[in-house]
Design brief:
Length: about 190
């Protein structure tokens, strides 16, 4: 907040380093983001950071999901980032989860089975009617499922078995078949 920023500047001008860093910490914890995290770490001396880092990490749980994910990825804490990612579902629109989708892509090789489950959560229930745009969205996610199964895990048989079942279960949905045939490689050849 502005008052805290003002007081922090005055503390810095007065040479009160402890008060200045304490106020900057409080500023950082309000709406914690990766940018604030980096800025605060830059302000701290190594000894100060050693003291404040555990406090920052303990407050991380209060940050928005995307900000927690960004900070964990920045810190190269991939296990924690994965836990944050898979705790939620695959986003239903790219505008709400573009960063999460990008992180899932980065984690594919490290955690292929977990990311596969995450992608599958984006497909949801395939055994019900939907609008064409929903089929198109699910087809794009299916491309990611195929990529993990075929390119990352190298399990072509598993992909074919899964895709064939999906295709057969949705044989009476022409819009579904058209959307999947448009974007999923090899969809038409599946029998």
């Amino acid at each position: 907040d502005e008052l805290r920023a003002f007081v922090a500047v005055r503390a810095q001008e007065a040479g009160d380093r402890d008060k200045y860093v304490e106020l900057q910490f409080a500023q950082t914890m309000d709406w914690l983001s990766l940018e604030k995290y980096k800025a605060f770490k830059k302000i701290c001396t190594p000894a100060e950071w050693k003291s404040f880092e555990p406090k920052v990490l303990s407050m991380l749980k209060n940050a928005y999901r995307t900000d927690r994910l960004k900070i964990r990825m920045h810190r190269r804490e991939y296990d924690e980032a994965l836990a944050i990612l898979i705790k939620g579902r695959y986003p239903t629109s790219t505008w709400e989860g573009a960063y999460e989708i990008k992180i899932a892509k980065k984690l594919e090789k490290r955690y292929p089975e977990e990311i596969l489950k995450y992608y599958l959560s984006g497909i949801g229930n395939l055994n019900r009617n939907a609008q064409r745009k929903e089929y198109a969205r699910k087809a794009k996610v299916m491309v990611k499922v195929r990529h993990v199964l075929v390119n990352v895990l190298g399990d072509q048989k598993r992909w074919v078995k899964f895709a064939r079942k999906v295709k057969i279960d949705n044989a009476r949905r022409p819009a579904f078949q058209q959307e999947f045939a448009t974007v999923v490689p090899g969809w038409q050849e599946l029998t």
